[in-house]
Amino acid sequence: MSQTITHAFDAAGFDALLASQSEPDWLTTLRREAFEHAEAMSWPERRHEEWIRTDIRMFQLGKFGLPVLDPADCDLTETEQLHQLVEGVELGGRIETVDGCITKESLDEELAAKGVVFGSLSKLAQSHPELVRPYLFTAFDPDHDKFAALHAAFMSGGQFLYVPRGVVVDRPLHIGSILTDGGTDTTHTLVVLEDGAEATLLHESNSTDAGGAGLHLGSIELVQKPGSNLRYVNLQEWGHKTYHFAQQKAVIDRDCSLQWTIAAMGSSLSKVNQSVDLVGPGAHSQVNGVMFTEGRQHLAYHTLQHHKAESCRSDFLYKAAQQDKSRTVWRGMIKVDPAAQKTDGYQRNDNLVLSHHARADSIPGLEIEADDVRCTHGSTTSKVDEDQIFYARCRGFTRKEATRMIVTGFFQQIFDRITIDSVREALGAAIARQVREYE
Amino acid sequence: MTHVLKIEDLHVSVGDKPILRGVNLTLNHGETHALMGPNGSGKSTLGLAIMGHPGYEVTSGSITLDGKDVLEMAPDERARAGIFMAFQRPMAIPGVKMADFLRHATTNVRRPDRKEGEELIPMREFRKELREKMEHLRMDSEFARRYVNDGFSGGEMKRAEILQLAMLQPKFAVLDETDSGLDADAVRLASESIADIGHQKMGLLIITHHDKLLEHNPPDFTHVMLGGRLVETGGKELAEELHQHGYDRIRKAYPDAEALNQKLLAEEAEEALA
């Protein structure tokens, strides 16, 4: 990363960003507030429970510039890496971004005619404020920490999906985000499904260079109105020198169904807070998490399943495999409010540690304030068993083939839960690419 | 040419503890050998040494297949060369379906020169063969969709091993107590299944305590192992004798080997407690 920084994450950069956007006043007000908060906040303390295992002393915000503010400055058109999730899939619409700038966007005319909106968040905030304003920052909390506040102040580009009441988007929609070496992406993804709406959104993030540096300071907000049904897939393969800080939140209402699959393979350091708030009776969420790390990667995922209403189900399964000197942190929490009787909550994290120097931290948690609930949690950490490898070798598998098979088998439980063929295949391929020979 | 698996003066240690102390055994293709002996005598060690288990160190002696040095080969190379062992306690591989495991295994064994990543046997062709073999062994087709040995009963594991034997069609197979943990009916079925696969089509080394598994696979030779050595070799009447009368005669006839056997057993018991 050799480019000079034109605009930094400071007051001058903030003014330049405001000047470059022609956005409504209410959004500027939100930004200003967030910027003030960000300025006043200090970086997270190491002693803080969320950061005790994740060392960010090496991270220097000053090394990164703001995302490209003028789309004309994005000259990258090669985005082949971005099509893994959609192999053989007929799409209803797609968005491609480079360093947060939208380079391509399309939506099937039939869907547009039904009132579906899918495109640039910053443009749509201007043209469709009545759809964006009521929901923006309702799930996301800009005051969560300094990273969240900075994101809110400096978010750029972004994507917005809106599906009106009762509309079924019968073909998947796709977002592909790519980061150039040394680039910055502050994308905000907002998804709103009105009553009874249905959609599938496939979202993949990549770097132009697998070893690329960069900064992603992002957020995802999923807002689901009663009876809506969303399948959201997020494949994260940022370059291996990229920082990834994100707050990813869903708020799902009565009788909603959310299947959220996250595959985290990339970045040098990730700190992600993922949560699902179940706010209406009968809501159901399933989260499938896959992490596979190598080198010195450090991926920290903090998940929260917050039951605020009665008779909801949440089911979180994270499976992680660690190679080389990499480390993953999973910290899960099921929170059940006093009103959330008849909660059915499940959380589990399984780890397969593939090298002596790799490490997995797994911290499940429960915080239950209702008395008629069923909540279970579990966590396992194991190594690849030499006896398993020997057994497979006695059947003609090479050591590498045996290891790959065992690792793939480890993740199979997640694949069994994923209902989209192309996603299952892309994840299987992504995992197979990562597996190496271990001694 | 008749294939020959030849074991000469084989010494095997686990850690620094000698288990096998000079085993000589020649298996010709088409022959069935029974290997019997009391617990701790080293029967399973011989099987694992033939397959190349990394924990079993060959300190001297040789194993050759048609004159080729087997000890130089990695376990997967031995499998591809046509050596097979049915495990006494096969490992579970969660998340991997029997059918997928077997398709890959069968491809590698049938095409010993296959490189990683090259095509497997076509799915349709493989499924047809697997279905036929399973029907033949009277196995439920559902079996192929289950994860390898995961949650299998003892009997199911042993039948899965026999299915693998049927698919891989090795030149030589060691069956390590493929009858243990099975009831009388299941043992009879296993015995019939092995005969169906065709004991005359391979060289078989059947490690067993009983003669039931041998019912349909009468041994040409019976070997008795004690204290890490083959102390006696006879025909199938020796297997019958040992099954009916136990090892008392053998123990008395070979007091030195018996003393070693007792010592190994005592050490094993100590380790189990530690």
UniProtKB/TrEMBL annotation, chain A:
Name of protein: FeS cluster assembly protein SufB
Stretches assigned to the SUF system FeS cluster assembly SufBD core domain: 183-410
Annotated ranges, domain SUF system FeS cluster assembly SufBD N-terminal: 21-175
Family classification: Belongs to the iron-sulfur cluster assembly SufBD family.
UniProt-listed NCBIfam families: sufD
TrEMBL record, chain B:
Stretches assigned to the ABC transporter domain: 5-252
Cross-referenced InterPro entries: AAA+_ATPase, ABC_transporter-like_ATP-bd, ABC_transporter-like_CS, FeS-cluster_ATPase_SufC, P-loop_NTPase
SUPFAM superfamilies named in the record: P-loop containing nucleoside triphosphate hydrolases (SSF52540)
Superkingdom of the organism of origin: Bacteria
Keywords per UniProt: ATP-binding, Nucleotide-binding
Pfam families: ABC_tran
Family matches, as PROSITE patterns: ABC_TRANSPORTER_1 (PS00211), ABC_TRANSPORTER_2 (PS50893)
PANTHER family: ABC TRANSPORTER I FAMILY MEMBER 6, CHLOROPLASTIC
Entry similarity comment: Belongs to the ABC transporter superfamily. Ycf16 family.
Name of the featured protein: Vegetative protein 296
Species this protein is from: Stieleria magnilauensis
Gene: yurY
